[in-house]
Amino acid sequence: MSSDLPEEIPEAAPAAHVERVRIEDEMEQSYIDYAMSVIAGRALPDVRDGLKPVHRRILYAMSEMGVTSGSAHRKSSSVVGETMGDYHPHGDSAIYDTLVRMAQDFSMRYPLIDGQGNFGSMDGDPAAAMRYTEARMSAIAEELLTDIEKDTVDFQANYDDRLTEPEVLPARFPNLLVNGSSGIAVGMSTNIPPHNLGEVVDATVHLIDNPDCGIEDLMGHIKGPDFPTGGNIVGSDAIYSAYTTGRGRLRVRAEYDIQPEEGRIVVTELPYQENKARVVERIAEDVNDGTIEGVADLRDESDRNGVRVVIELKRGANADVVENQLLEHHLESTFGVTNIALVDGQPEVLDLKETLEEYVAHRREVVRRRSEHDLAEAEDRAHILEGRLQALEQVEDVVETIRNSDDRSAAIEALGADYDLSEAQAEHIVRMQLGSLTSMEEAEIAEEYEEVQETIDYLESVLADEEKLLGVIKEELREVKAEYADERRTAILEAEGQVTHEDLIPEEDCLVVVTEQDYIKRMPADTFDPQNRGGKGIIGGDPKEGDRVSKVFRANSHDYLLCFTNRGQVYRLKTYEVPEMSRTARGKSAVNLIDLDDGEEVTAVVSTDEFDAEECITMVTRQGYVKRTSCGEFENILSTGIIAASLDDGDELVDVEVTDGSRDLVIATEAGMTIRFDESEVREMGRNARGVRGIELRDGDHVAAMVATGDADQRALLTVTERGYGKRTPLSEYRPQSRYGMGLVDIKTGGRNGPVTTAKAVEAEDHIVVMSERGQVMRCPVEDISTVGRNTKGVKVMEVEEGDAVASVTVLPAGDASEETEDGSGE
User: From CA 446, how far away is CA 452, in angstroms rounded?
Assistant: First the structure.
């Protein structure tokens, strides 16, 4: 019997170095190394391009193969084999599963693979084998690789050091948010929902323009996740939590239609990642075992055009009960948001702003490196063209020099020595064809040289100016949006039965009081009983020494208010955010609510419930400038405010009205002049515009107020002066004029009256609330104020003490002005 074993086994050679370690320490370190390998190399996406290594390698391999959106489809097995052989040394099934998911329009909001063949279904059907399906990159996937050849990203060696692969893709759009990602690593997982491309681009551009903006400002653009399967997200609190903390649990509900006449419920959209066949199967099981009652039949009528599950109800069944049972068990699910991604190779939980900031930083680096690459190429080309132009200027001598040279190398050396050309220039000239010596060719070279110089100047300006570089990023984002953005598919519903902070605030009319030193408070409008005109009123505020009331206005406690300041800024807040205080309280500093600068004060307020995007915000300044700006310009207002109007030095914003293009504007001045003209004489302009002249002011005069009216025959102009006198005159007595006239005399301001404080359009049934600088408040019916003609002194509206003055007047419209009892006592 023979044996393959040697007769003698040699002794093992002694180890050169033996290191003793504790087994638990070695296991711990090895496990940490393994965990980090899984986290960084497999399971978590990079925050910059939103891709895991396997996704990135598939797309890069397809790009290298030329399997782009404009090419023919290739067998999926070819793509998988190329990816596995060159970049991803793992099983082919893992690569193919990833490719399949990138092709599924029910998994990816914007699929990165254009598949041909069976790539699975919402019913959980698997894709066909890779030898049967075909694939190519989608057009939007190419945007992730644009400019990769221009040294925009770092490359690393592939697994066998034979090739190189990108560490990250240039990514012309924030793919992490747009397509989302999910993965389970060691000790952590990520689950990022997809979003609407247009909304994400708008938020990114907003962040670039306003780097100090808050997450609430970004949510003005990104309403919430946008799933490829549609459906509804119930409640916005979880969205807010996910965007501010990086974690949240979203309630996702199917879209369905209750058709009581036909006696059925039709489901047309399912929650994201739900298996449709399994949902239908579970509903059938619950119907059979009696968990769901009232269902007569259940049919899945879905096709390639979309989901359609029909639930027929029994005669007499309560559709609402069946609906609630379906929601509780089948048509509503939870999507847990965990926004974990790799930042500089380390996993981090990111909020919405941090995610976009990391992307913007990535694009800033990409555009910078691309510009440097293009600049180097342009400078090289300009260098060559300079040599060609120099050669053409002395073409006969250059040709003679080349002819007299022994060989090509000698010609290059001679040209460099005789004409001060670089080696690259000389070599290019030697290789020139004779046909390039024509005069037409010379003109084309000169034209190309000018174009290259313009390119160099532009690229140098981009690299030197951060604002210009960011402008390039914004322009490219807008191009992607214009090409690929679509409408939202997922609606956001208010959570039924969910009590919000606003629900706890009673809805009522309020008076908001603001002082010159930015103290603010609100009081119920019925705090003040009506009095006869000419009274002193009661205490409505207690400004501290040196301060005085500057404005009082009416608002509903649930209104959003646009607060315009004398410096042309506008801020937004809810009325109930203003602290409610007693009439004798001083108020709270407004800096706790809106970010006012020193010397800035609120001069006008409008409610966002009062206008739509087709209307205009019309503004007037102290020096008589008027401007109209579309209300759509004020939809997204930062917590720090935005510019409403640009003002000249020494000018201030005085008054604001909401107009619809059919109103007449009446401007009143402190000296008692008024002018009335059609608002169409003031064209619409942007927020940064100054406006046009509305009234020609006399020396020392300034604008006090503006009124917009469309029913001059029914309303009157109420004018009130600093010393408490006022009058009511029918608006019809103010004949229309052209803009920028001197106007007509409205009220006499000399002597007892003092200058005009404000003017309001009123009806006889209205009430007014007059407030003095020292905080005295008086409320009286408008009908108590005499109706007189223009150019009169008027009557006493409010008794104003010596040293005090009327600060502001607000109108309580007829519908909500009267809190009086039948005897008119107000008690």
Answer: 10
The shares of helix, strand and coil residues in the chain, as percent rounded to the nearest 5, are 35, 25, 40
3-state helix/strand/coil string of 591-654: HHCCCCCCCCCEEEEEEHHHCCCCCEEEEEECCCEEEEEEHHHHCCCCCCCEECCCCCCCCCEE
Domain that residue 748 falls in: 507-817
| 451, 484, 517 - which closes a domain | 484
Average pLDDT over residues 437-460: 85
Helix (H) or strand (E) holding 554: strand 549-556
Largest distance between two CA atoms of the chain: 137
pLDDT band (50, 70, 90) for residue 401: confident
| Domain contains 195 | no
Which residue in 575, 573, 665 sits closest to 616, CA to CA?
665
Residue 474 lies in a domain: yes
Which residues carry out catalysis? 132
Whether residue 568 sits in one domain with residue 479: no
The residue written with tokens 């902070």 in the block is: 501
- Distance, CA of 355 to CA of 338 (rounded, Å): 12
Between CA 595 and CA 702 the distance in angstroms is: 27
Residues 783, 731 share a domain: yes
Pair 553, 622 in one domain:
yes
Q: Torsion-angle region of residue 792: left (phi > 0), alpha (psi -120 to 50) or beta? A: beta
Question: H-type helices in 638-785, by residue range?
Answer: none
Quick check: pTM over 0.85?
no
Which CATH number belongs to the domain containing residue 561 in this structure?
A: 2.120.10.90
- Taking Cα atoms as reference points, which of 112, 120, 134, 92 lies closest to residue 45? 112
Considering the domain architecture, whether residues 78 and 130 belong to the same structural domain is answered as yes
Beta strands 588-589 and 795-796 are unpaired
**561 & 700 share domain:** yes
Asked, for residue 178, whether it belongs to a domain, the answer is no
At 11, the pLDDT band (50, 70, 90 cuts) reads low
Token pair, residue 39, equals 């986290």
Concatenating the DSSP letter of every residue in 477-495 gives: HHHHHHHH-----SEEEPP
* pLDDT (0 to 100) of residue 391: 82
Rounded to the nearest 10°, the torsion over CA 453, 455, 460, 463 is -170
CB 165 within 8 A of CB 87: yes
Same domain, 799 and 692: yes
Give the pLDDT confidence of 727-762 residue by residue, as tens digits: 999 998 999 999 999 999 999 998 889 999 999 999
Q: Residue 758 in contact with residue 720, Cβ under 8 Å?
A: yes
Spatial distance between the Cα atoms of 414 and 421, rounded to a whole number of angstroms = 9
468 shares a domain with 375: yes
| Tokens linked to 113 | 């693979």
Query: What's the domain count of the chain?
Result: 4
Q: Is residue 342 part of a domain?
A: no
> DSSP letter at 494?
P
Distances (CA, A) of 20 to 17, 23, 26, 275, 498: 10, 9, 10, 54, 62
Q: Which amino acid is at 574?
A: K
DSSP-based three-state secondary structure for 677:
strand
Q: What is the phi/psi pair of residue 281, to 5°?
A: -65, -45
Q: Is the pLDDT of residue 184 over 90?
A: no
**628 and 703 belong to one structural domain:** yes
